[in-house]
Amino acid sequence: MSKEGGPIRLLIVDDHPVVRDGLAAMITKQADLELMGEAATGQEAIDLYRKHRPDVTLMDLRLPDMSGIDAIATIRSQFPSARVIVLTTYRGDVQALRALKAGAAGYLLKSSPRAELMKAIRIVDRGQKVVPPEVAADLSEYVADDLLSAREVQVLQDVAGGNANKMIADHLSISEDTVKAHMRSILSKLGANDRTHAVSIAMRRGFLDS
Hints:
Helix content is 52%, strand content 12%. By secondary structure, the chain is an alpha/beta fold. It has two domains: 134 residues, Response regulator (Rossmann fold, 3-Layer(aba) Sandwich), CATH 3.40.50.2300; 62 residues, Orthogonal Bundle (Arc Repressor Mutant, subunit A), CATH 1.10.10.
């Protein structure tokens, strides 16, 4: 949390220079905000967090060396009081749930209005959480037991790559019957009609990268 009377110190983490420049420009126009540093990778984010101990970190989910979720988990494991807002293009409930479980205090879409982001930074700095209504609605629509297992995600990734059951079985060193069993479970959990429909739903919800 920012020191009494002092500006809220921020760290930006995004691998796109244009995004970082845009956020930096917004922050420097706010009298109560101060930019401490910018990182383009997860490791840079961890290193800069250790160095500057910012009050609030703005974190993208897709980074070149690790996921933003892994970066959040690493930072929070070393600094439990770290306050991180995920700023992403991905609305899927799975990504949001994982980010919040990793310790994110906020989850905003990059399409959010500037005023909403500035407000979120100040709210999170006070120790509160921020999840916009549209993301909260996505989260509440699904129950925890419909989450795919790690193996089911692997199977679905191979399906998305156009692989038949035999190729998937060979790739994952399991039997075709096991692949079929995983597919039945996947279709049931996602409420999908077929393999193609399952891949489409999984991409929308954030199980798979689109």
